[in-house]
Amino acid sequence: MTSTPKNPEEWLRTFENAVRGSDFAAGRTMFAGDAVAFGTWARAVTGLDNIEREQWQNVWPRIRDFHFESDARIRTTGDSAWIAAGWVTEATAPDGTPFTRPGRGTFVLERRDGKWLAVHSHFSLLPSQSDSAHGQLPGRSVS
Predict the structure, then answer these.
(1) Among residues 103, 130, 135, 139, which is most buried (max CB within 10 A)?
(2) Which CATH architecture has domain 8-127?
(3) pLDDT in tens, 65-95
(4) What is the pTM of this model?
């Protein structure tokens, strides 16, 4: 059983453990039922059932060694908080080759009835800086 995080810092570590263990039940206790999420798999989903089905169940079982980086930025004001953190995980390419998969995540938390819950999350992979990913602006050369 997962203990209730006392602050946003504990919330982040507890959620990290849920992701790492593919513990959907623990993850669900940390999100509001009306949460909205943007993910690496799902474009945008509303509601906890949809977040679990469309994002978590498609990603968590496919990754290993998930962790947030130690330099997470966390700000709390009253019953609201935000977290911005880099993350790293291991994944397997279609050819079976393991690779490191870095990204970043942002959370908006609200304290509801004394419990910190995510009302919004946004996970993304690190952006590619290549011309093939972003294209080139007309009339500009890339150095």
Answers:
(1) 103
(2) Roll (3.10)
(3) 999 999 999 999 999 999 999 999 999 999 9
(4) 0.88
Rounded-to-integer distance, Cα 112 and Cα 32, Å: 9
Q: How confident is the model at residue 3 (pLDDT cuts 50, 70, 90)?
A: confident
Radius of gyration, CA atoms only, the chain:
17
Amino acid of residue 41: W
**How many alpha carbons fall within 13 Å on the CB side of residue 132?**
0
What pLDDT does residue 133 have? 47
Expressed in angstroms, the distance from the first to the final Cα of the chain is 53
CB atoms within 10 A of CB 43: 9
Tokens of 89: 């995980």
Separation CA 11–CA 108 (nearest Å): 11
Does residue 106 surpass a pLDDT of 80? yes
DSSP SS3 for 104 = strand
* Sign of torsion over alpha carbons 122, 125, 127, 132: negative
